[in-house]
Known about the structure:
- By secondary structure, the chain is of the alpha+beta class.
- It has a domain at 277-392.
- Helix content is 37%, strand content 10%.
- The protein has 16 helices and twelve strands.
- The strands form six sheets. A two-stranded parallel sheet has the order 1-2.
- A hairpin with a 5-residue loop joins β6 and β7.
- The longest helix has 26 residues, at 128-153.
- The termini are far apart.
- Residues 1-28 have low confidence and may be disordered.
Amino acid sequence: xxxxxxxxxxxxxxxxxxCDNILDSTPAVTISEDLFWQTEDDAEKAIIGVYGPxxxxxxxxxxxxxxxxxxxxxxxxAGDWGDDAQLETFNANxxxxxxxxxxxxxxxxxxxxxxxxxxxxxxxxISEQKKNEILGQAYFMRAFHYSRLMLIHGGLPLYDENLxxxxxxxxxxxxxxxxEFIERDLEKAAELLPLSWPEADLGKPTKASAxxxxxxxxxxxxxxxxxxxxxNKIFEHKDLYxxxxxxxxxxxxxxxxxxxxxxxxxxxxxxxxxxxxFNLYFYPHAFGGWNFFHPEQSLVDEFEYLDGSPRRKIKxxxxxxxxxxxxxxxxxxxxxxxxxxxxxxxxxRATVVTCGESFNMDGAVYTFPAGDTMTGYCxxxxxDPNHHAGLCNLHYCIVRMSDIYLMKAExxxxxxxxxxxxxxxxxxxxxxxxxxxxxxNCTMEDIIHERRCEFATEGLRHYDLxxxxxxxTVYANDNGPDGPRTFVEGKHELLPIPxxxxxxxxxxxxxxxxx
Length: 515
């Protein structure tokens, strides 16, 4: 039976005796370090442990990572969990232990496990190829865990080795130093990882996974030539990496989409048991979910008509718990969604579900009622059309090939100040995939628009608006259910360091400005 290695590993609670950890953890299995680190199987078990924290409810196996999108103008928070509401209204505080404290500990647990691998595997008596594969994954995942913390909190204490408990209390590095640390790890990962994996190992990071994240962080740092150079490394391997023909196939595990999905956290059913609770937050109540996050109307209005007609704005009108209608704001005409989805950019259909739609899941028909939404929509990217909530095969995409096209286009435009055939060609590759007409003389407004449609509800919009210095203006004009929001520049680019961690550090960790 083939062994599929997807990033769906259970939380492997393995630590070692005789080794002080930078985090407190309760091991499920305690193994003497002298008896471990002997075989390839030991190395494989250890690297699986580095992925393990991803599957905790306060990392990806819940809503803690996707929840950052409620800060953007793409998603509205409709659940009753208070932490979400505070995020959405930019009122987060350092005392939110569940949201910030547990996420902080989980990511540093992943970093600690990566450091264990990086310290022990080089001296193991295993093949050089296996060493490189294991070490490449460890460098990649250490960078990944750090990158998720950095986007949220800024500069961090940097650990490239596990220290005795008496020495682990380190101050935060600067934002720039943290970027450099992450970039070095990704560069090392790209050096060691393979271009692709055999069938049995699909889902592990590749060279392109590391290059793709490098492009993103170079772009955040305005290192535009590095973005171009790194993107070109991926484009040199178009036989391996390219766009999927069908945009929506990127989000279903059952589709062979490794050529576009350079890295994703993948959720799969195992032996008919729930995959993880992540999708519960996106499914409507009628589909067995908790329905926390609803796409906003401004996002829906962003998608173009295929024939180039002017975009028309829509308004959702809920008549009662079961019935609703959508009308065009220009003339009050009722929207025919069957017709509208055919006429619009197909990424809209892949992104939202509208009231009244039905799905045949697990042999039963589920219908999305009006009473299940504040905005009129739920997130289609995180609905498996074959299974109700809790039983699903889905991707949470981290970096896709379309992002490489658009990041390179943006970097070139920033460098040159105006468009040319190469820049237009990059953005048009992404547009052609969904049947949209080519554009010429590409502007930043075109890239901003294209990124919103291409990566809607994938966790990038808020950080894009911050780096474009548009967050304050966009959120002040937000037309979601909560209305305009106040984004304070110099504060809300980051979220607070957990107060519990500052207390544990006895003040060595310094809080972010404004909190």
